Description:
The complex is a heterodimer. Helices cover 86% and strands 0% of the residues of chain A. Chain A is mainly alpha-helical. Chain A is rod-shaped. The N and C termini of chain A lie far apart (135 Å). In chain B, a hairpin with a 4-residue loop joins strand 7 and strand 8 (141-156).
Amino acid sequence: MKQIVALLLVSLLLYTTISVKAVDQNEINSAITSSFQAVERAEKAGGNVSSEVGLLNQAITLVRNGSDDNLTEALRICQEVSLKENILVEQNLETRNMGYYQTTAIVIALLAAALLINKYGSKLYLSIWKTIWGNWRIERV
Amino acid sequence: MTPTTFKHISFLLIGFLILVAVYPIIAATFPTSKYSELALLGPTGKVNVYQNQVKLGEKLPFSIYLANHEDKVELYRFEVKTVQNTTLTSNPPYDTVPIFTDLVIVENNMNVTKTIDVSLSSPFNGKIVVELYKFDSSTGTYLFSNRWVSAWLKTTN
C-alpha cells in the first residue's frame, strides 16, 4: 500500500514538473506570428498599433534571451497583444467616424459658402462699396 | 474689382475646394511604390565602411539597418549566413544554414538598426550574407523579399 502511495506521489510530482515546463520554441514562434497577424488586422482596420509593435518586439527580445521565465513572459505578452485587437479596432472606429463627419461638415460648409458668395457676393460687394464711397464725387482740379 | 472678376474668383475658389475634397480619393486610387530597405553597417555605423578581418571568437563587426516602406506593419526575419568563396556562384537565398537569425517588427515608414550578435569559431574566408524575409500572413510563412546584402570577411587567429 505504501509503495502505491509513493508511486502516486512521484507520478504527481513528475506531472507537475512537466506541466510547468510547457512553453517551447515552436509554441512561442507560433504565438509571435499569430499576435503579429492580430496587429496587422488591427492596423488594417485603422487602429494605432505602435504600442503593440513595441510589446511584440519586447517579446522577441525575451525569446532571444531564451530562459524559461523569459519564454513564459514572452508568451504572456503575445496573448495580451492578441486580446487587444478588438479594442483597437473599436477605438479606431469611433475616432474615424468622428473625423469623417467633421471633414464632411467642413467641406459642405465651405462649398455652401463659396456658392453663396458666387451668387450674392457681387451684389453685397457693390452695396458695401456704395455705402463707403457712394457719396464721392470726381471733380476736375 | 468688377462683379465679373468677383464671379471668376469665386468659381476658382469652388474648383479649389472640389480638388481638396477629391484629393484623398485620387491618392488612394494610385498607391505609391512599396519596398523595404536593407543595409549592412560597419563598426562605425556606416554603409560600405567595413572591417574585413575578425579574430576567431570575436563578435562580427556588422549591424543591420532595416526600413519599412511597405505601407503596412511588417514582421521581418533576417538570416546571417557565411558563404565560402567556392559557393558564391549563385544568388541568394543560399541553402547554407544561418549562423544567426533574428525577428523584428517594423511599422510603416519606420526604421530599425539591429546588431548581429554572433561570432565565428572556425576559420572562414568568404562573404557574410544577410538575407531578408517577410512574414506572409496569407500563407503563414516567411518569404524571401529579394533583399540581401553582403561583405567580405576573413578570420584571423
